């Protein structure tokens, strides 16, 4: 308890009213441990450590309110209630896998909830770092585009897709696990799936076509998501986007099946054990890199909004679609669907903007694979997206001619 006593008083000396509290615990728990060890042959420190943590949680409630303390308390409760299952589970996994599971739990369940879900400007960041109010004159420096929660959410998302893929690989084999994790990830972020599969394509295991299929199936799910989201916010817009989006969906599904069959016909170049294939079940480095790229894209998108009055309405929205699609499709899909329903943006312009953003997003994913992926993976993904983009452009042209 000496360590606890040294840490807590400097933080909140006025809160720890009874100064003997740590000392009381310091005397009680060694006695409890000795009794358990000698009379019950029980040498675990779990109960004693849990009691100390309970004391600290009480202090945290007084210092920072209940939010953080509740998170810690729930984690302690979960760990205590699943102690036997965890010990049994540990016999089936390596120490590295167990440590990685804990790390992922920390970044997803502890770090993420503590980050503010609020967009900050460069001016606000400089003011916060300096400790005083700084006024920066240019409008770009006052633009709110840095959201810590959303940035870290993408990091967690990409790391989570890799982690789920790793678990599925242990159960289904690397090929089946990759494709299923791609389909699941496509429901949330096909860009994150592409980044994760591009990273995995470097493993030289002979599973390249499985990673290609996983990348393309994620974008197939994204095309379906575009139709569903647009129809939810404005059913009328479906009359324009359904045909091009369906062409995109069917072409990507066809290419996914093609590479899935090709993967089945291609033997692995070597037998790769899961433990040898991954340095770690997930890596934060690539996820953080891609998150920073998204921040840069959001910055450029914001700059485009600032100068929207200098170009025609249609041209502005199409340029915005190109830029926004580099980072995200759902946001501009929702925005354009709502604006077209309200009548502030013509239906055709809104639908075309959504489709351009989707094509832009697919182009970005193809570029990620091409510049960062293994050679065969890069070429295959480029072919898959290239065919889909070409057919979708023809469908958009036909729809615009007859609308």
Brief description of this entry?
The chain is mainly α.
What does the secondary structure layout of this molecule look like, with pairings?
Elements: H1 2-11, H2 21-39, H3 46-64, H4 66-81, H5 83-90, H6 95-114, H7 122-130, H8 148-172, H9 174-186, H10 190-200, H11 208-233, H12 238-265, H13 274-277, H14 284-306, H15 313-324, H16 330-342, H17 347-372, H18 375-402
Any overview of this molecule?
This protein has helices at 2-11, 21-39, 46-64, 66-81, 83-90, 95-114, 122-130, 148-172, 174-186, 190-200, 208-233, 238-265, 274-277, 284-306, 313-324, 330-342, 347-372, 375-402. By secondary structure, the chain is mostly helical. It folds into 2 domains: 2-92, no CATH class; 169-402, no CATH class. Helix 9 (174-186) packs parallel to helix 11, helix 11 (208-233) packs parallel to helix 18 (375-402) and helix 15 (313-324) packs parallel to helix 17.
């Amino acid at each position: 308890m000496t360590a606890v006593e040294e840490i807590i008083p400097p933080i909140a000396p006025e809160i720890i009213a009874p100064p003997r509290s740590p000392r009381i615990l310091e005397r009680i728990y060694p006695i409890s441990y000795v009794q358990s060890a000698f009379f019950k042959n029980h040498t675990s420190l779990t109960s004693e450590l849990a009691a100390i943590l309970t004391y600290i949680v009480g202090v945290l409630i007084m210092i920072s309110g209940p939010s953080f303390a509740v998170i810690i308390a729930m984690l302690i409760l979960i760990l205590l209630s699943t102690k036997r299952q965890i010990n049994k589970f540990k016999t089936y996994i390596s120490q590295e896998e167990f440590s990685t599971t804990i790390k992922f739990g920390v970044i997803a369940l502890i770090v993420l909830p503590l980050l503010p879900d609020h967009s900050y400007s460069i001016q606000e960041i400089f003011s916060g770092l300096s400790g005083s109010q700084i006024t920066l004159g240019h409008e770009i420096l006052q633009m709110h585009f840095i959201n810590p929660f959303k940035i870290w959410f993408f990091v967690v998302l990409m790391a989570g897709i890799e982690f789920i893929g790793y678990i599925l690989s242990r159960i289904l084999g690397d090929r089946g696990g990759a494709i299923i994790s791609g389909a699941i990830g496509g429901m949330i972020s096909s860009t994150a799936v592409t980044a994760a599969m591009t990273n995995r394509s470097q493993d030289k295991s002979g599973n390249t076509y499985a990673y290609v299929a996983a990348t393309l199936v994620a974008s197939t799910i994204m095309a379906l998501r575009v139709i569903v989201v647009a129809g939810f916010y404005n059913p009328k817009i479906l009359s324009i986007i359904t045909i091009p989006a369906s062409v995109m969906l069917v072409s990507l599904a066809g290419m996914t099946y093609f590479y899935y069959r090709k993967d089945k016909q291609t033997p692995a170049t070597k037998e790769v054990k899961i433990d040898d294939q991954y340095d770690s079940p997930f890596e934060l480095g690539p996820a953080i890199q891609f998150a920073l790229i998204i921040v840069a894209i959001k910055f450029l998108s914001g700059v485009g909004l600032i100068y929207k009055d200098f170009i025609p309405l249609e041209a502005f929205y199409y340029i915005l679609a190109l830029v926004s699609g580099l980072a995200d499709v759902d946001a501009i899909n929702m925005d354009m669907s709502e604006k077209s329903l309200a009548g502030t943006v013509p239906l055709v312009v809104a639908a075309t903007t959504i489709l351009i953003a989707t094509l832009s997003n697919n182009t970005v994913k193809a570029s990620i694979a091409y510049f960062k992926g293994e050679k065969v993976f890069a070429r295959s993904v480029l072919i898959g997206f290239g065919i889909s983009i070409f057919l979708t452009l023809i469908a958009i042209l036909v729809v615009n001619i007859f609308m």
